Amino acid sequence: MSERQSGHARMAPMQQQAPNGFTPRSLHAVSPLSSPPAELTPRALLAGGLIGSVLAVTNVYMGLKMGFWESGCVLSSLLAFGGLSALARRGAPLSPLETNLSQTTAVSVGAMPASAGLLGAVPALALLGTQPPGWAVALWGVGLGTLGVLFAFSLRRRLLEDEALPFPTGAATAELISTLHSTGSAYASRARGLWVSGLASVVLTWLRDARGLVPVSSLLPATVRVGGLGADSLLLGVGWYPMLLGIGVLVGPQAGLSILLGSLVAWVGLAPWLVRAGLVQGTDFNLLSSWLLWPGVGLMAGAAATSLVSQVRALPAAVGDLRGLGMHGEGWESTAGRWVARAVLPSILLTLGMAWFAFQLSPLYFLLALVLAFPLCAVCARATGQSDIAPISPVGQLSQGAFGMVAPGQPGLNVAAAAVVSGAASHTSASLWSLQSGRLLGASASRQLLVQLSGLLLGAAVAVPTYLLLVSVHGLGSQALPVPTALQFKAVAELTSRGLDGMPPSSTLATGLAFALGVLLSVGARGKLAPLLPSAAAMGIGFVVPAYYAVTLCLGALVALAVRRLRPSSMQTVQSAGAGLIVGESLVGVLIAALLALGFLQPPG
Asked: How many CB atoms lie within 10 A of CB 503?
């Protein structure tokens, strides 16, 4: 799902969002330099590439577990400042533009898992019986990412300058970079939380997955009965996953409590009833989740539909965005615009070739998906600029619905066509956040474009092997990799392709009711009741992940809430600590998977 679901952790299904009520402030003054500040330097590119590689690994790991991915604008700025400051002690002074360029590079690299479909479309195709080769997925991702970057650059003048849409995450990133370069103490507290929590996460993950000294979860005993079933059989308890605590800190209490509520409805309410009624034979996680998936998807689809309807009024402006492409700019901007126009056709041809060869998406259907992608990317860009929420999952599901009508009975084609739209939209939104940061800092947009394009290659080289490694070790749809976004893609494809007959017994009514509830909650969240209502999209995730995932994530959200209420001055440090927990577990989790695959480690116990 940057997505903080199309909703809140700029992480996918939820996409990253600045704190509620954020208003861009004037940037801190930075001491003037005697010569023009450096920007496109080897050290900035190196730092951005390394940080982006960490983001790419993290997003694959986190996305396959929880369906979230993080744009990384703020995190990469913090890491880039720290790393480049160390290098600057023996070289030229560090400028804010260098830090911003590193951040821009890192975000482009880190968004590749979403653009290539590694969090949703590709695993969904694998679950449907189609597994494209890794090299083809990489080229496919590069092609879609290129289209997204070029589209973002083409919209830059209109959305960022002419209409001055806020893009709050980009503005917050510029504010952070300005603060770091003007206030020495600003870095210390954030970095301390990041590194301490990251180290703790590394140690705990190693002890859990490599040595077996820490359990995966601590479940309630079987003597605790829930609807006649042992609580342990329903996986009720707490998971020892620092990453889940970190996600909870970043998504906040509303999303965290919503995921827990969805999990309680699914695993405490519906699951025992399913077993008693004989609709599911046994308490195995995969058996139960194959039924519970449908009402979960209903909740998420209801939220997605409401999000899209709310953007209908943006369609005329999006059409104007498309008509105005390439009409603005003088000097370097005009030159860069011409190169952008020249790069579009090769990018389309590359993606078309991979779509036909590896994804069984014929040229005709690919072009239809592309025609759908351009206006939906514009809608997504406007939503991101206005609300800081990138509705990537909703535009993907809308595409699935459209292709279900155009080409019924072909779930694989349905998923692949939707991947064209959601893949391009992912990089469009991520690129505009970085471009907004650069605009506020006075950076060169053409240089940002250059590093965004170059970051795509590195992102594909890191993300695709990471995905293949994790899948080969843990398997798709397991407790270790629940792949909620992929299950959503697969369910919508099967529903639009086969109709209600393909659904499990008695799940049709539950899915319809969940869809209606998702719509009602999402409509209500646009009014005064917003702080009190749960997020429908987040509730849907609670239906498709183990219950102890939801409990642990909610604990992280409650910790963040307690800190915000009792000691608000420490909130930035706690948020950095949450990011450290996510990065630490992700990196060590992938390392352990590699060691297991190579035979250097044996599964514990």
From this structure: 18
